Amino acid sequence: MASVDLTGGAGRARARSRRRIRAVLGFVVTVLTTYLGLLAVTFFIGRVIPIDPALTILGDRAPQAAVEQLRRTMGLDQPLYYQFYLYIKNILEGDFGTSVLTSNPVMTDIARFFPATIELATVGTIIGAVVGIPLGVLAAVKRGSLADQLVRVIGLVGYSVPIFWLGLLALLVFYAKLQWVAYPGRMDVVYEYSFTPITGFFLLDALIQQQWDVLWDLFRHIILPGGLLGYFSLAYISRMTRSFMIAELSQEYIVAARAKGLSEMRIIWFHALRNAAVPLLTVIALSYAGLLEGSVLTESIFSWPGIGLYITNSLQNADMNAVLGGTIIIGSVFIGINLLSDVLYKTLDPRTRSR
C-alpha cells in the first residue's frame, strides 16, 4: 500500500508541474502575441497614413535625389514584410527613431514626458478610489434608496459627458471665475529654473527637497486635471464596487455574521468589502491603465506636458516616429498593467488558481 501511495503522490506532483509549465508557457505566449499585435498595428498605421517619413525629415523643398537616398537609408524601398522586420528589430533594441519636432531620440522625449502622465494618472486614480469605493459601498448598502440613485447618476454622468467639454467648463468655473486653481500647465514659470527635478515626478521631487512653496504650486496645477480624471475613474470604480458589494452582501456568511450579532459596520467594512477587495484591485488597476491611455484630451485641454500632449503635438507636425513611439510605450504599459492585475488576482484569490 505504501508503494501505491508514493506512486500516486509522485503522479500528482508531476501533474501539478505540467499544469504550472503549461500556465507559464500560456502566459508567455499571450504576452508575446499581444505585444506582436501591438507592434503590427502601430507599424501598419504608420504605413497607411499618407505621410512620407523621408519627406517629413528633409522638408517639402528637398531635392528628389536626397529624398530617395534617405528612403533607401531608412529601408522604405524594401518590401513591406522586410520593413516590418526592421521595425521590430529597432523597437526591441530600444530605437524608436528621432523626433522631427524636437530633434531628440524619441526614447529621450518619452523619458522626459511620460512621468508627468504617470503622475497625473496616479492622482486621478487615488481620487477615484478614495471617493469611488465608499460611494459604491453606500449605494450597495442603501440599494434602491435616494442615495443609491444619486451615486448611479454621478456614475452615469461620468460615463456620458465628453471629457473635453467638462474640462473646458471646469477651467471656466474654477480658474477663470473663482480663481481657485492655477492656470493650465504643470508649474508656475517662476519655479521652472529654481526647481531641480530628481525622479521626474515633480510632486515627489518637491517633497524630497522640502520645497513647500513649489509643492503647493504643483498641487494647484494638478488638482483640476487630476480631479477631472479622478471623476471619470470614480464613475467606473463606484459602479463596480456597488456590483461587488451587492453580490457579497447576499452571501450566506453575511447572514451568519448578522446572526452572531456583529455590528452592521463591521460586517460591511471588514467582511463584505474585504472579500470584494480582490476583484476591486483589478478594477482599480484597469482604471489606472485607462487613465494612462486616455489622458490625451485632458493633457491637451490643460496644457499638461505629458505623453498625451507630446503625441498630439507630434501628430499635428507629422512626426510619425514620435507618434508611433509614444503609442507603443502607452500600449506596452497598458498590456503590462492588465497582465499584472491578472497575476495579482490569481495570487490573492486561491479559488482562481485551479481554473
Walk me through the structure:
- The protein contains 14 helices and no strands.
- The protein has helices at residues 2-48, 53-58, 64-73, 80-92, 106-141, 146-160, 163-177, 202-208, 212-249, 252-259, 264-293, 296-301, 307-316, 320-348.
- By secondary structure, the chain is mostly helical.
- The chain has a domain at 109-352: MetI-like fold, CATH 1.10.3720.
- Helices cover 76% and strands 0% of the residues.
- Helix 5 packs antiparallel against helix 6 (146-160) and helix 5 crosses helix 9.
Number of helices: 14
- The CATH C-level name of the domain at 109-352 is Mainly Alpha
- CATH architecture descriptor name of the domain at 109-352: Orthogonal Bundle
CA-to-CA gap between the ends?
Answer: 32 Å
Summarize the structure.
The chain crosses the membrane at residues 21-45, 120-141, 153-176, 218-237, 268-291, 322-345. With 355 residues, the protein is mainly α.
Core attributes:
14 helices; mainly alpha; dipeptide transmembrane transporter activity; 355 residues; MetI-like; 0% strand; MetI-like fold
Topology, element by element:
Elements: H1 2-48, H2 53-58, H3 64-73, H4 80-92, H5 106-141, H6 146-160, H7 163-177, H8 202-208, H9 212-249, H10 252-259, H11 264-293, H12 296-301, H13 307-316, H14 320-348
